[in-house]
């Protein structure tokens, strides 16, 4: 279906509208709209400056969509072709109809650019999300708790009930935007909408502001909430409390509250993911002869068996005494690092006994202190080459 006419000041061969948009004759409204959006974005003059051919294709797509998006025009076009939709077939006498390209653009790109013009009405705004840091003990993080927190938020004004107007007065329709909350600016082929500068999108103006909120409709207020902390939360975890953030504007929904967990330092334990770590000081006699020591755990006191001749910094693992993961349910372990405590403030008798003991240890040589002797051998090997080199 091809016709010839004078268009945009030049002679052109008019292509089939379905061919222009790249759709079949059986295409539904959604397919046609998607096809037009794709073509319009590709060939728009702003994306193709000084390209007359792209501009021509762009206008051709507009014309095709104006016809195929209207059921009546499409039916006429399917039966009579281009001749059926020229002049009287297209109200307004032009390829864009009475509403012009602005209406086409709003229909297709409104969900992207906030189109729809006055049909949208005044804007409502969702309240902002609020973040609150909660300092939590390790025990409360591991076992869970119910925490009461006091959070500063923007709340709906009690005096004016969110209207922003003083008692006895009411907001009036904004004269700049006519109550729509937006104003339209025409820039070339595009009809761009922006928030009304007079009413800031509310669609209303207030001549007598509320004395409490000064026309804002919201006031800063601290509210007390009870938040359930699930067992196993860790440093940096966030708990979302729906609808407990700042109140919305113009009747919009409230934002959410995000409670971020921060762990307090613990007297014994250091947490790494699901595992717990602690350092345990042990007497010299126990690490030499062996014995049992008492260690802490989150479940209470425990006994740890120390084998004879345990070296300092030895780490013992107690399985299942860590933290149960809040997401996976995996239970971590407890790691106890032994540190040998050097005796202090010895009596004369204790010193004499220790000197005698140390002498007997030295007589045994490498048998009693294999690590020390190995280290001394390495040390001699480190210095001897330097001594020979200096002697030469």
UniProtKB/TrEMBL annotation:
SUPFAM superfamilies (alphabetical): Chaperone J-domain (SSF46565), DnaJ/Hsp40 cysteine-rich domain (SSF57938), HSP40/DnaJ peptide-binding domain (SSF49493)
Highest taxon of the lineage: Bacteria
Alphabetical list of InterPro entries matching this protein: DnaJ, DnaJ_C, DnaJ_domain, HSP40/DnaJ_pept-bd, HSP_DnaJ_Cys-rich_dom, HSP_DnaJ_Cys-rich_dom_sf, J_dom_sf
Ranges for domain J: 16-81
Boundaries of every CR-type domain copy: 144-222
Binding-site residues for Zn(2+) 2, renumbered to this chain: 174, 177, 196, 199
Ranges: CXXCXGXG motif repeats: 157-164, 174-181, 196-203, 210-217
Zinc fingers, CR-type class: 144-222
UniProt keyword terms in alphabetical order: Chaperone, Cytoplasm, DNA replication, Metal-binding, Repeat, Stress response, Zinc, Zinc-finger
Cofactor list: Zn(2+)
SMART domains: DnaJ
Family: Belongs to the DnaJ family.
HAMAP family listed in its UniProt record: DnaJ
Known role: Participates actively in the response to hyperosmotic and heat shock by preventing the aggregation of stress-denatured proteins and by disaggregating proteins, also in an autonomous, DnaK-independent fashion. Unfolded proteins bind initially to DnaJ; upon interaction with the DnaJ-bound protein, DnaK hydrolyzes its bound ATP, resulting in the formation of a stable complex. GrpE releases ADP from DnaK; ATP binding to DnaK triggers the release of the substrate protein, thus completing the reaction cycle.
Protein name: Chaperone protein DnaJ
